[in-house]
Design brief:
Layout: H1 3-15, H2 17-39, H3 45-71, H4 85-93, H5 97-108, E1 115-116, E2 124-125, E3 130-131, E4 152-153, H6 155-158, E5 161-162, H7 167-201, H8 217-248, H9 252-256, E6 260-261, E7 264-265, H10 274-282
Antiparallel strand pairs: 1-6, 2-3, 4-5, 6-7
Helix pairs in contact: 2-3, 2-8, 3-7, 4-5, 7-8
Length: 326
């Protein structure tokens, strides 16, 4: 077995460790909230029922969206973006970059490709040996083909590339994770205060007799509040950033480096207005926005833009927003 293959297998195994860690934390939070808090700690039955219903709803939506984020495969470019056999052989024989670009330009004339490299050349992936569709980038971290608007590569969090096919699921995952943590932190707070007070005053002669029982449940409740608050703060910043990206219709790469068109870089080249930008990710059926069903508009490798000025050999193209474009 080649050393590179062994290393790749090790990386693949290690990439699952954060996912297993999150799964363990979520499973523990379920036990701590349902069993230790609701069953063993909360004395009021009505309060138990309300908390359990809302908790299980948020828990289910959180796990569902997280599952879809992890296991939704990235979209790969269609065969039309691959070089024909003759052009591919000629491209590989050529040693001059100028000659290679001429080959790429000839093939790209028939493709819906309007973004360019920083020097104005056709974007080509030597690893996958295809002409890159607009807004697409190869993910070297995952060593796969996460094409089609690879908005954010997060192998350390979800062990999958977040792109066109699962970006909506990722946004919902952040939203429901935030709601999940907020609900836990807000409902646990009063019992956290009571247990904290009990811990500080249990040796006092004036400790109230109606305090909660000093059992092992207090450790779960205390730790549950700290974990929920910590995750809430970290998720809030990431969720806010991605909401801003959705409103601007930018990927994380485009947020740092503006896409380059034939007439130059334009950071708002794919922005269609706030409402249309949101529908590009969540679709045009509002009732399906909160659910982790795929409703994003388009095919993943052609995207509507405000104005795309083609090169002199091609006509000026204006891509309007539509249900059949992304």
């Amino acid at each position: 077995m080649a050393p590179s293959h062994v290393l790749r297998c090790c990386q693949r195994v290690l990439s699952w460790i954060p996912v297993f860690f999150i799964a363990m934390v979520v499973c523990w939070s379920y036990y701590a909230y349902v069993v230790e808090l609701c069953i063993f700690t909360i004395p009021n039955v009505g309060e138990q029922i309300v908390y359990l219903i809302v908790f299980h709803l948020s828990f289910f939506m959180f796990v569902w969206s997280y599952w879809r984020t992890i296991f939704t495969k990235p979209v790969s470019p269609s065969k039309e973006f691959s070089l024909p056999k003759a052009d591919k052989e000629q491209y590989e024989r050529e040693e001059r970059p100028e000659a290679q670009q001429e080959i790429l330009k000839r093939v790209a004339k028939e493709l819906p490709v309007y973004t360019r490299t920083g020097t104005g050349g056709i974007r080509y992936c030597d690893r996958c040996q295809v002409i890159k569709p607009d807004r697409c980038h190869h993910c070297s971290a995952c060593d796969t083909n996460p094409w089609c608007r690879c908005v954010l590569c997060l192998p350390s969090r979800v062990n999958n590339c977040v792109g066109f096919s699962n970006y909506k699921f990722f946004i919902l995952f952040l939203a429901y994770a935030l709601l999940y943590c907020l609900f836990i932190a807000s409902t646990v707070l009063q019992y956290f205060i009571k247990f904290w007070t009990l811990c500080r005053r249990k040796s006092s002669e004036h400790c109230p007799k109606n305090e909660l029982p000093d059992t092992h449940a207090k450790f779960h409740v205390l730790f549950l509040f700290f974990v929920a608050a910590m995750f809430c703060i970290s998720i809030l910043s990431l969720f806010s950033y991605h909401l801003w990206l959705v409103g601007k219709n930018r990927s994380t790469i485009e947020a740092f480096r503006a896409p380059v068109f034939t007439n130059g870089p334009d950071k708002n080249g794919f922005s269609l207005g706030f409402k249309k930008n949101v529908t590009q990710v969540f679709g045009d059926q509002g009732r399906l926005w909160p659910l982790p069903f795929f409703t994003s508009l388009g095919d993943g490798y052609t995207f509507p833009a405000r104005l795309v000025s083609a090169d002199p050999e091609r006509a000026t193209v204006i891509l309007e927003t539509g249900a059949n474009a992304r």
